[in-house]
Amino acid sequence: MPEQKFDISLAAWSMHKMFFAKEIDQLGMVDLCHELGIGGLELVNTFFPSPQYGYLKQLRKRADDAGVRILLIMCDAEGSMAGPERASRMLAAKNHHKWVDIAAVLGCHSIRCNTGAQEGDADALDRCAESFAALVEYADASGINVLIENHWGLSSDPDWLIPLMQKVNNPRFGTLPDFGNFPESIDRYDAVRRMMPYAKAVSAKCYDFDAAGNETKIDYPRMMQIVAEGGYGGYVGIEYEGERLSEREGILACKALLERLGGA
């Protein structure tokens, strides 16, 4: 594979079991990144105890002091951007405004949104293009990107997602390719390859590892070659979702694998 060097980050979702068990909070996630030698953190909006400015400044200072960059916020539960009623989908777009503002305070480059678009909805592309164009226009004023991850529904179908990128056609609008999150009918390697020209973040999904430290469901050398050939120069984010290893063990296993493939 081509010689490549990239930075490694950690998706907060990798710690969701610890979070829901009240073993860690967002400030603790910053500390864990520092402890494990990971220089970037990707937050989840539903993990915020408060979006108030004082807390945001505390979180930003904690990250700055630890040498950890807060890169983006993954946004869920803010409504469907593909809603059949224009008022409902434009409200969903407006619901994301606060996360754009929060991302700006925290020094992020992006927020990640869901489309709400489901299979069989022939008009979802046009509706999403309208609502995302409006959101991107708002985000541009703060220098924040709006990203779509392959996060099930039509967003996991590159034949639908790439036309959405083309229809909105704004440099602030991009993809967040996740190595998982594809149905069996989709070739994950071809799909990530097609998403890479629009990628502003990458999610290194991992589930389990063999005795040699290789991911058991995803060919990581092949996937990281696709990332390299796509000309991507940003962080690659660990997103561990396995059951056999603890979250900490899974994060470290994924980190070791990415380091073997050029990560630092």
Secondary structure layout plus pairing:
Layout: E1 8-11, H1 16-20, H2 26-36, E2 40-44, H3 53-66, E3 69-74, H4 86-95, H5 97-106, E4 110-113, H6 124-140, E5 145-149, H7 158-168, E6 173-176, H8 188-195, E7 202-206, H9 220-229, E8 236-240, H10 247-260
Helix pairs in contact: 2-3, 4-6, 6-7
Coarse morphology: globular
Strand order in space, largest sheet:
6-5-4-3-2-1-8-7
In the CATH hierarchy, what is the superfamily?
Answer: Divalent-metal-dependent TIM barrel enzymes
Write down the domain tally. 1
Briefly note the CATH topology name.
TIM Barrel
Structure description:
By secondary structure, the chain is α/β, with parallel strands linked by helices. It has a single domain (8-260), classed as Alpha-Beta Barrel (TIM Barrel). Strands 6-5-4-3-2-1-8-7 form an eight-stranded parallel beta sheet, with helices on one face. The protein has helices at residues 16-20, 26-36, 53-66, 86-95, 97-106, 124-140, 158-168, 188-195, 220-229, 247-260, and strands at 8-11, 40-44, 69-74, 110-113, 145-149, 173-176, 202-206, 236-240. Helix 2 runs parallel beside helix 3 (53-66). The model has no long low-confidence stretch (mean pLDDT 96).
